[in-house]
Amino acid sequence: MASLSIRDVYKTYPNGVPVLKGIDIEIEDGQFLILVGGSGCGKSTLLNMIAGLETVTRGDILIDNKIVNNLSPKDRDIAMVFQSYALYPSMTVRENMAFGLKIRKMPKAEQKAIVERVSDTLQISHLLDRKPGQLSGGQRQRVAMGRALARDPVMFLFDEPLSNLDAKLRIEVRSEIKLMHRRLGTTIVYVTHDQIEAMTLGDRIAVMKDGVVQQFGAPQDVYDSPSNLFVAGFIGSPPMNFINGTLLEAGSGVGMLLESGDTQTVLNLPFSAPSVRSHIGQNVILGLRPERITDKRHAHSTAESLLQEINVKVDLIEPTGPDTLVFAQINNRRTVCRVHPSAQPRARENIALMFDVSKAVLFDPTSEDRIA
C-alpha cells in the first residue's frame, strides 16, 4: 500500500495549452480515489502523470512520501488497467497474466501459483487457456485486472475500465473491483466520467472541470453539499434540480415564491445566516435533489417543520420500477420529482408533493458558488 500526494501540479503542453491548473489531492494508504469529470477535464492526463506516462510541468507527485516526478513508470511499482484492455492477442489468458512476472524473471512455479490464485479470485480459472479473441468484453476486462493484480503493486490505476461494457456487465465488474479493494486494501486511483461509479466505488472523489478540482471529499459530502452548480449538476442521477427565484423575507427566515401552472406558493427555507439574509431581494438558485420532492406518504425529513406541501402540475412521468419520476415546470424550469409507484401520478394533472428542504442548497447565479 502507498499514500499519494499531488501538490500544486500543473500540466501545460508545448503549444502553450494548459491542461491541469494547480491540482492538490492527498489520499492515505489503501484509499480509493475517484477522478471524475466530463471529457477534456484533465482526469486521464493526471492519471498518466501519476503513472509516469506524462511529465509534470510544475509541482510534485509523491508516492509514499517520495517524489516520483522523474521516476520511470517501471520504477514506481504501480499497475494500470486501461479502457481498451491492452491484452496481447497471440497469448493465452495465462500468458497475459504472467507476462509482467516473466519480465521480472520470477521463477515459473511462483508465476503459476500467482496466476492460479488471482484467476480464482476473479473467477476466470476456466479461461486460462483461451486467447483474448475468444473472450467477451467482461471476461477481457477481468483478465486485464488479473494481470494487474498478479503484479502485487503498491498502487492500482484504472483508466475508465468499464466504458466498453454493457450496463449489466458494468455493474458486475464494478462490484468485483470494490470487493477486490476490500480484500487487498491497496491504494486505487480510478478515472471515470460516470458519476454512479464515482459514488459507489470511491472513498474520496475529486470532481474536475477544465483542469481544476472543483470539489474533493467523501462521496456523500459531495452529493449533499456540492460546492458549486457544476458539481451539483454533475453528481447525481437524475441531477439536482435548479429553481431560479427571488429570495424573500418569510417570517423570521427566508423563502422563495414557486409557480407551477396556476399555483403560487412561498416555500420556506431553513436558512438564517447573515450570508444568506444579505441576498434577500436578489435572484438566487435553489438546489433540491429529486428524492427531496416526493409524495406525502413517502416524504421523510429530520423535522416536520422542514416539510412543506406544494401543488405542482405534472408535465411528464417516467416509471422506473422502484420509483416514478415526475416532471413539472416550477418557476419555468423543468423539475424532476421522485415519487413511489403507488402514487400513480398522471400527466397534466395537479398533484400535491412534499418539499423536504432539510438538504436544500442555495447558489449565487453569478459566481455559481454555494451560498448555503
Write up this protein.
The protein is an alpha+beta fold and 372 residues long. The chain folds into 2 domains: 4-234, 3-Layer(aba) Sandwich (Rossmann fold); 241-363, Beta Barrel (OB fold (Dihydrolipoamide Acetyltransferase, E2P)), CATH 2.40.50. Helices cover 24% and strands 35% of the residues. It has helices spanning 43-51, 93-103, 108-121, 137-151, 167-184, 195-201, 219-224, 229-234, 274-277; strands at 4-12, 18-27, 32-37, 58-63, 66-67, 78-81, 155-159, 187-192, 204-209, 212-217, 241-250, 253-260, 263-269, 283-288, 293-294, 307-319, 324-330, 333-339, 350-356, 361-363. Strand 17 and strand 18 form a beta hairpin. Helix 2 (93-103) packs parallel to helix 4 (137-151) and helix 3 (108-121) crosses helix 4. The model has no long low-confidence stretch (mean pLDDT 90).
Order of helices and strands: EEEHEEEHHHEHEHEEHHEEEHEEEEEEE
Helix content: 10-25%
CATH homologous superfamily designation of the largest domain? P-loop containing nucleotide triphosphate hydrolases
**Morphology call:** elongated
Q: At the first level of CATH, what is the class of the largest domain?
A: Alpha Beta
Rounded to an integer, what's the Rg over CA atoms? 25 Å
- Strand line-up of the largest beta sheet: 6-7-8-3-9-10
Overall average pLDDT: 90
Strand content: 25-35%
**Head-to-tail CA distance between termini:** 38 Å
Helix count, DSSP H or I runs of 4 or more residues: 9
What name does CATH use for the topology of the largest domain? Rossmann fold
Low-pLDDT residue spans: none
Number of strands: 20
Number of domains: 2
Structural class: alpha+beta
